[in-house]
Amino acid sequence: MIIFKVYDVMSYGYTIIGLTYACVGYFKKDLPLEFIAWDEEKIEISEWQQSTRSYNWSTIDGINVSPSNLTIKSGPADGTMVDLKGYTEADIEKLKSELIFAQTLASA
């Protein structure tokens, strides 16, 4: 009877990739989860586990707040779309009223 010992080389690669993802997740744990903040000069958006993006009111062409998304158009090829899943209807109404008002003031 011949017994073969199988060395699964791919398991080493998966182990390294798994440990790498665990380290990246550990070091990114202090990033804020999600927020949308604004003041008189700019709007800041951070999505889960991503860095904060900032847009000056003077560079924003349009803002659209729908029940499921916040879309910011800035310039010919810049802007973002943020999923509003998890936000309450009151939060979405606040975004609609205050962001569009702030953009109107900035463009005046």
Topology summary:
Layout: H1 9-27, E1 35-38, E2 42-46, E3 53-56, E4 62-65, E5 69-74, E6 78-83, H2 89-107
Antiparallel strand pairs: 1-2, 2-3, 4-5, 5-6
Protein name: PH domain-containing protein
How would you describe this structure to a colleague?
This protein has 108 residues and is an alpha+beta fold. The protein has a domain at 35-107: PH-domain like, CATH 2.30.29.30. It is 35% helix and 27% strand. The protein has two helices and six strands. It has helices at residues 9-27, 89-107, and strands at 35-38, 42-46, 53-56, 62-65, 69-74, 78-83. The chain has a three-stranded antiparallel sheet, with no helix packed on it. The protein has a three-stranded antiparallel sheet with strand order 4-5-6, with helices on one face. A hairpin with a 6-residue loop joins strand 2 and strand 3. The mean pLDDT is 81.
Short description:
The chain is 35% helix and 27% strand. By secondary structure, the chain is an alpha+beta fold.
CATH topology of the domain at 35-107: PH-domain like
Percentage of residues in DSSP E strands: 25-35%
Poorly predicted ranges: none
What is the straight-line distance between the termini?
87 Å
CATH-defined architecture of the domain at 35-107: Roll
The radius of gyration is 22 Å
**Average residue pLDDT:** 81
Secondary structure: helix percent = 25-40%
Protein name: PH domain-containing protein
Organism: Salegentibacter salegens
